[in-house]
Specification:
Elements: E1 18-20, E2 23-27, E3 35-39, E4 45-49, E5 60-62, E6 67-71, E7 75-80, E8 86-91, E9 104-106, E10 109-113, E11 120-126, E12 129-136, E13 147-149, E14 152-156, E15 166-170, E16 176-180, E17 186-190, E18 195-200, E19 204-210, E20 215-222, E21 233-235, E22 238-242, E23 248-252
Antiparallel strand pairs: 1-2, 2-3, 3-4, 5-6, 6-7, 7-8, 9-10, 10-11, 11-12, 13-14, 14-15, 15-16, 17-18, 18-19, 19-20, 21-22, 22-23
Length: 254
């Protein structure tokens, strides 16, 4: 905040910084300097621009690194990565500016979601225009950004309170291809072979196979004490899981 003039979000900064092609991208919030691009080696500011609240999602590079995609506290923004020029935006927000789920891009279709009145939404991106394709107030993402699978996205539905609701959504139509109530809300990742590794908020680790008509659960084990809101990480055959208390477990999957 002191170095870049940022404005602290309501719940503190939680979006990850993004490094690409020697540059570091940050969503810092504030007037006139809300999005920042730094030299990754020196920390020198390359450009800083824009207004408004910071979001809680992670900046993402799309279109071969030419476009920076941000879900800021008050809008989805698409900016030219080289100089920060605003290419397109779509205003949407919810209580405490909790735009938390990182947007997903499928060709020319963007998927965004929060737990406010908008819920989930798909936008067609053409030039400097974002046009709504569909919107579903009954689906909302808060703690997990969703997992892209073909032209679908697999989500834990945080709009539903007190019950489990995981579903695979067709991004082109907004329709659920399947729903599953066997797995508590959590986070996860998708492997190249179509298997999902899910870490529930209760610390249970679930291995499942994603299909177009169902989620086939293969195995499940209690990995850590609850609560677990951290994304599991798979690298070099090892799976790292962490809970909110800071406990970490590493599984060898080789």
């Amino acid at each position: 905040m002191s170095d870049l003039g940022g404005k602290r979000p309501v719940y503190g900064y939680s979006g990850s910084p993004t490094v690409h092609a020697g540059r570091l991208y940050l969503d810092v919030g504030g007037a006139g300097k809300s999005t920042a691009c730094l030299d990754a080696k020196s920390g020198a500011v390359i450009w800083q621009t824009g207004d408004g609240e910071a979001g809680y999602s992670t900046p993402t590079l799309v279109r071969d690194g030419e476009v920076l995609m941000l879900f800021k506290g008050e809008a989805l923004e698409l900016r030219r990565a080289k100089d920060g020029h605003l290419l397109a935006s779509h205003a949407t927000t919810t209580r405490d500016f909790c735009n938390c789920a990182t947007p997903l891009l499928f060709d020319d279709t963007l998927f965004i979601s929060h737990t406010g009145n908008m819920g989930a939404r798909a936008l067609a991106w053409k030039g400097d225009t974002l046009t709504e394709l569909w919107s579903d107030r009954d689906v909302g993402l808060l703690f997990h950004s969703g997992l892209p699978w073909k032209k679908n996205v697999m989500v834990f539905n945080d709009q539903v309170r007190g019950s489990n609701d995981m579903r695979l959504i067709d991004v082109t139509t907004g329709k659920a291809l399947w729903q599953n109530n066997e797995i508590p809300k959590g986070t996860g990742l998708l492997c190249d072979d179509g298997h999902a590794i899910l870490l529930t908020s209760m610390g249970e680790l679930v291995l499942a196979k994603v299909k177009e008509d169902a989620l086939d659960i293969i195995s499940r084990v209690q990995a850590l004490p609850a609560k677990c809101w951290c994304q599991p990480v798979l690298s070099h055959g090892r799976l790292l899981c962490k809970n909110n208390a800071g406990e970490v477990v590493c599984h060898d999957l080789r």
